[in-house]
Design brief:
Layout lengths: L4 E8 L7 H10 L2 E8 L7 H9 L4 E5 L6 H14 L3 E4 L1 H6 L1 H9 L3 E4 L6 H13 L4 E4 L17 H7 L4 E5 L3 H5 L8 H11 L4 E3 L5 H4 L4 H11 L4 H16 L13 E3 L8 E3 L3 H6 L6 E3 L4 E3 L1 H12 L2 H4 L4 H14 L1
Parallel strand pairs: 1-2, 2-3, 3-4, 4-5, 5-6, 6-7, 7-8
Antiparallel strand pairs: 9-10, 11-12
């Protein structure tokens, strides 16, 4: 992997998506200098946002999520995360459509919407076009916008509002492998036509790359392969590729000071860490709704493992010779299993 990589879409958030230290271990091993760390869906580890802002202001930018069973709870959660230092909010397509107040909060703050499915169809694209027009300081990033078997003749998938959105000066597409790609046959040629269309509309100055750490390990992949696949699809030179995997994200996310809390929240020191590292006092209802014991699907069409098992696997893998040498998680697991059988 080349030097000066910026990951525009990684995950963090305990227990399911790992700790801040684990994210940094992943970045260091792959020469990833900076990363946008996005809370995974249904994992409201809000304190990790303030922890990242304090400990790694030059390396990490955080993106939050809507969370809560009611509209008011979701709005409260979004306000909390933006106030404590999140640079934006990740929105599922349904959330963007059903909760306009959340988009309003993001827009009024001049922050980023990480819009999953922003280019899914003309209706969703029009929604985001209207939002960008209404909030001239807000910006839109679109991870997970990879679609197979694309045709430029499909009126619901190309042209119209989708084309206008991709060509918007404040739109940035993020190439992230989808679950469908992980289950499809390498080199995923079913996605080639879409990639070519995206590149034609956005150009190299409005595209980025994201690994989706640690999900890529659940799919038995690594960052090198996740990046090289996109490089093989794009007809671009080295300077244009550098913009996609580094320069664009640096210019958009890491130019200027990191967002910090300015709202006077009551903070409390994290146990067993430096006293300057603090976390937010979270409303009680967040913990009450936090599904900490969800299983995690390992490997395409594989098995669901308890989260406690996956936490131990990830921690062991990130400190293993297999990880350091670029070998897959399945190789690490097999080696550990072999040792247990032999002992």
């Amino acid at each position: 992997m080349q030097s000066k990589i910026t990951d525009a879409y990684a995950h963090f958030g305990q227990p399911r998506f790992g700790s801040l230290d684990q994210l940094i271990s992943y970045m260091d091993n792959h020469q990833i200098e900076q990363a946008v760390a996005v809370l995974g869906p249904r994992v409201p580890d809000f304190s990790i946002i303030s922890e990242a802002a304090i400990r790694y202001p030059d390396r990490i930018r955080a993106v939050g999520i809507p969370f809560g069973e009611t509209k008011d709870e979701r709005i409260e959660a979004v306000k909390l995360q933006l106030d404590v230092g999140a640079m934006g909010i990740r929105l599922e397509t349904r959330e963007a459509v059903e909760y306009p107040k959340i988009l309003e909060l993001i827009g009024e703050s001049g922050c980023w919407a990480y819009g999953i499915g922003a280019c899914l169809n003309q209706r969703v694209a029009e929604l985001y076009l209207s939002w960008l027009s209404q909030y001239p300081k807000a910006k839109l990033a679109a991870p997970h916008f990879m679609y197979p078997d694309f045709s430029p003749e499909d009126p619901d998938k190309s042209g119209g509002s989708i084309q206008k959105l991709m060509q918007h000066e404040r739109f940035y597409g993020i190439f992230v492998r989808n679950a469908g790609m992980a289950a499809s046959v390498h080199p995923h040629t079913a996605y080639k036509a879409w990639m070519e269309y995206v590149y034609e509309q956005c150009g190299p100055n409005h595209l980025m790359w994201g690994s989706e750490y640690p999900v890529l390990y659940w799919r038995n992949e690594n960052a090198n392969a996740a990046m090289d696949m996109f490089r093989g699809f794009l007809n671009c030179n080295e300077e244009e590729w550098k913009r996609i995997v580094s320069t664009n994200a640096i210019e958009q996310f890491f130019t200027g000071a990191a967002p910090i809390s300015t709202k006077g929240f009551i903070m409390e020191s994290l146990e067993n860490q430096d006293s300057s590292v603090q976390k937010l006092v979270i409303p009680e209802w967040v913990e009450q709704q936090f599904e900490r014991n969800r299983t995690i699907p390992y490997f395409p069409k594989g098995i669901d493992l308890p989260v406690k098992v996956c936490v131990a696997i990830l921690e062991g893998y990130l400190h293993s010779p297999e990880f350091a040498s670029g070998r897959s998680m399945s190789e690490y697991i097999f080696k550990q299993w072999t040792r247990q059988v032999s002992s």
